[in-house]
Amino acid sequence: MKISSFLTLSVYGIKSIIFKNKKPILGTIILTDKCNLSCKHCAVNNITAVIYPYAQIQKEMQSLFKSGVRILFFCGGETCLWADGDKNVKDLIREAKKMGFLYVILVTNGTFPLDIPEADLILLSLDGDKEIHNMIRGDTFDTIMGNVRSATTDKIVLYMAINQINKEEIPKVCKIAKEEKNVMAISFNFHTPYTGTEYLALSAAERERCCHIISEMIKENVPVFNLQSAFPYIVHNKFPTPCYQCVVMENGKLSTCGRCVHIHGLCEQCGYFFAAEYALVFKGNIRVIFDMLKTYLKYI
Ligand SMILES: C[S@@+](CC[C@H](N)C(=O)[O-])C[C@H]1O[C@@H](n2cnc3c(N)ncnc32)[C@H](O)[C@@H]1O
Ligand code: SF4
Ligand code: SF4
């Protein structure tokens, strides 16, 4: 990220904290819920399988920009399945940059070629070594690793959702993050128990153990793109929800924090690290604010 963009975001953040502003800064647009995979832990794929049209996404971008969002995520379903005529996700990223978004991130399952240098960051889901990842995500590990190695960007951050199946896999995925030349860092979430996936959720004791392992990995110089100072709040779900500075737009519908905000009782079991990290920062938690500055200066 350009230093000017970083300063703009920092000033915005400071103002939000001082004036207790609830304006969003971080926005996600869901391009489609269509997906080529059907992962065990996922409850948001192929519900309608509609790919939203370019003009609609463009309007949603304008609306988010107008509301104050400056960090934009494109997500799905499988984000890289998005296309409208001759347009693909690369066109959407270019359009977003032209509109003035300061940082544009694409979230993907990595099964399509990663020729997307336009993205400031690619969050690429990897949920274990070959055996465990494939157990969760189908036979995709080799394809994904091939795409990582031939990517035209080195701004890839591995994105691991930790659950009952892969809770022992953290060091193995960290090793991949450390060794692969196109991988810049690794970022974690804990399983959020949507209906039908409750059996994959971790107890507080299990989350604590995972955070301990992640902390050990940080000591071993694994590039972890999470805020260690927020771990105790995440382990015990002791952060304010929802996070008002994050919004999600799907098919014209705007939700505060995540689409999951509409599911009764889910926020109390939230496993999304970003929700905790941003909510704590904007509540003025000094340790988390400094941790965010230090971490973001390193990775973005
Ligand atoms: C919904 S997917 C969409 C983008 C893309 N298809 C992918 O898999 O990266 C975005 C992220 O949410 C994670 N995810 C899905 N279900 C989850 C759950 N119940 N709890 C926590 N993370 C979850 C996925 O593992 C993935 O990293
Ligand atoms: S690839 Fe992403 S959207 Fe598709 S099923 Fe898996 S987690 Fe869900
Ligand atoms: S706090 Fe967590 S569960 Fe609640 S809306 Fe935000 S991301 Fe979803």
What features would you describe in this structure?
There is one protein chain. The chain has helices at 3-18, 54-67, 89-99, 130-137, 141-149, 170-179, 204-219, 231-235, 273-282, 286-299, and strands at 26-30, 71-75, 83-84, 87-88, 103-108, 121-125, 156-162, 183-190, 246-250, 253-256. By secondary structure, the protein is α/β, with parallel strands linked by helices. The chain has one domain (22-299): TIM Barrel (Alpha-Beta Barrel). The strands form 2 sheets. The chain has an 8-stranded mixed beta sheet, sandwiched between helices. The protein has a two-stranded antiparallel ribbon with strand order 3-4. Helix 2 (54-67) runs parallel beside helix 3 and helix 9 (273-282) crosses helix 10. The radius of gyration is 18 Å and the shape is globular. The structure holds S-adenosylmethionine and iron/sulfur cluster (2 copies). Residues 192, 241-243, 257-258, 260-261, 266-267, 270, 272, 275 line the site of one iron/sulfur cluster.
